[in-house]
Write a structure and sequence with these properties.
single chain, alpha/beta, Rossmann fold, Domain 2, N(10)-formyltetrahydrofolate synthetase, Formyltetrahydrofolate synthetase, domain 3, 12-stranded mixed beta sheet, 25 strands
């Protein structure tokens, strides 16, 4: 089969105005970026026709604990949407924007694959409409304003040892995890230690995705805590008086991006937080707009149900008021075999015993979704090397959980390969559900963390040293106890140890640090050895990416 980029380049791509017309977006709300991508002005929400429409059904696509290559959530999201559209359902897809970090690193792009892709693939995976650059610039403007304030007299009496705002870059660069800035004399500000995170982990990214419009965005940016004064006062972006300039940098970015699938169906690609170190969902603005424009909105959340799905429910749904109607849980035989003890080098070889053992991981993820009282269907994203015996083992082992196990071949056949999944989802959406959060707002922060660790990961308990416990108590006593929790954890295991595969038991979750994201409205809890600035692998994907003599990009996947 041809490569993803070859398939994308040969697609019969339609003018973006034609795609907009399919979902009732008129030219006065469409802001084209070339012929094949555009932004939708959020003023469309004030249109009487749009405002008067009821919201459609919402389907979340998540996964079991993935292998390093991922299990195909985005591919499944797109394949399902194409299948539903082919059945005559008015459907809109909402996915995240890819980060340059994994694109040039190990995982590759984030626009789907095979015959289930979003196009123009090269644009989406690289600079797209510039949203990531705008978010990076807005974040670093605040960083620059903070150091500038220190340089010009520090009227706010900031304690430079208690600065909690760092810098970001949309690339994997481990050399920037710890840095010393301000060297070179008094003209270069005050020397101090600083850190860099990847843009996907920026609080600006989270705020961007959790804000409903430009005014909400400005208010949330104003609340960002950047440092503490020497007498313990919180210093915010509003105190530095740059919230307006930061919002100005994001005035275009806040508008959702419209593109299309290979089969010519509309897709909103907007926002891109990682699910292991951030909340892992696309923007509320895009999702709520899609639910107004379509009968079915299909969206995704990063990594497994223990990360992206939990945060989708407990953070995104809590803040937006949206309610999911059904969940697709993506599984692959290669991931099942990995969790059954097979090394990555052998996951293409039939191993029924390993699949049998690996289903314990899948079962846990099914149980995780059921904690929220949302109906779920398992989609086996099938590869050419998978065998019927392996698939039958999955169905047999999960038969007692009361969920359908559906085989999908959308990577090879596009929407046609996900028709059975589409029909299953339509049936699930006909039923009412009793969706509920994992924990109430009034629960203590410590107990919220413990609830996530025990119910989602299967941990026995959580543990933290005295300094971390004191910080959690301080946040609780200072009026932030009502906020939801955003856990930062390895995606490679249900536990905090990436080497523990399957369904680990008898482990505790070590809490290394807590950070208040007051603008985004959640408390970040860092566990284990998770880091917010990834590094490149020994052979990064960037080594295979080039541009030919005709100006065409090659090597993207």
């Amino acid at each position: 089969m041809k490569t993803d980029i070859e398939i994308a380049r040969e697609a019969d791509i339609q003018p973006i105005s034609d795609i907009a017309e399919k979902i009732g977006i008129t030219d006065n709300y469409l802001e084209p970026y070339g012929k094949h991508k555009a932004k939708i002005n959020l003023n469309i929400n004030e249109d009487e026709t749009i405002a008067g429409q009821s919201e459609g059904k919402l389907i979340l696509v998540t996964a079991m604990t993935p292998t390093p290559a991922g299990e195909g959530k985005t591919t499944t999201t797109i394949g399902l949407s194409d299948a539903m559209a082919s059945l005559g359902h008015k459907t809109l897809t909402c996915v995240r924007e890819p980060s340059l970090g994994p694109c040039f690193g190990m995982k590759g792009g984030g626009a789907g694959g095979g015959m289930s892709q979003v196009i123009p693939m090269e644009d989406i995976n690289l600079h797209f409409t510039g949203d990531f650059h705008a978010i990076t610039s807005a974040h670093n403007l605040l960083s620059a304003a903070l150091d500038n304030h220190l340089h010009h007299g520090n009227l706010l009496n900031i304690d430079h040892r208690k600065i909690v705002w760092n810098r970001v870059l949309d690339l994997n660069d481990r050399a920037l995890r710890q840095a010393v800035i301000g060297l070179g004399g008094p003209l270069n500000s005050i020397p101090r230690q600083d850190t860099f995170s990847i843009t996907a982990a920026s609080e600006i990214m989270a705020i961007f995705c959790l804000s409903k419009d430009i005014n909400d965005l400005r208010n949330n940016i104003s609340s960002i805590i950047v440092a503490y004064s020497k007498d313990g006062k919180m210093i915010t972006a509003k105190d530095l008086n740059v919230q307006g300039a930061m919002t100005a940098l994001l005035k275009d970015a806040i508008n959702p991006n419209l593109v299309q699938t290979l089969e010519g169906n509309p897709v909103l690609v907007h926002g891109g937080p990682f699910a292991n170190i951030a909340h892992g969902c696309n923007s509320i603005a895009a999702t709520k707009l899609a639910m107004k424009l379509a009968d079915y909105t299909v969206t995704e959340a990063g990594f497994g149900s223990d990360l992206g799905a939990e945060k989708f429910f407990d953070i995104k749904c809590r803040k937006s008021g949206i309610t999911p109607n059904a969940v697709v849980l993506v599984a692959t035989l290669q991931s099942l075999k990995t969790h059954g003890g097979v090394p990555l080098s052998d996951i293409k070889i039939e191993n029924i015993d390993a699949v049998n053992k690996g289903t314990e991981n899948l079962k846990k993820h099914i149980e995780n979704i059921q904690e929220f009282n949302v109906p779920v269907v398992v989609a086996i994203n099938r590869f050419s090397h998978d065998t019927d015996a392996e698939v039958n083992m999955v169905k047999e082992r999960c038969s007692d959980l009361g969920v359908d196990i559906v085989e999908c071949n959308h990577w090879l056949h596009g929407g046609k390969g996900a028709i059975e999944l589409a029909n299953a989802i339509v049936e699930l959406c006909k039923n009412d559900n009793d969706f509920s959060f994992l924990y109430p707002d009034e629960m203590l922060l410590w107990d919220k963390i413990k609830t996530i660790a025990t119910k989602m990961y299967g941990a026995e308990n959580i543990m933290a040293d005295k300094a971390v416990r004191t910080e959690i108590e301080k946040l609780q006593n200072n009026g932030f106890g009502h906020l939801p929790i955003c856990m930062a954890k390895t995606p490679a295991s249900l536990s905090t140890d990436p080497k523990l595969k399957g369904r680990p038991k008898g482990f505790d979750v070590p809490i290394r640090e807590v950070r208040l994201s007051a603008g985004a409205g959640f408390v970040v809890v860092l566990t284990g050895d998770v880091i917010t600035m990834p590094g490149l692998p020994k052979k990064p994907a960037a080594e295979d990416i080039d541009i030919d003599e005709n100006g065409l990009i090659e090597g993207l996947f």
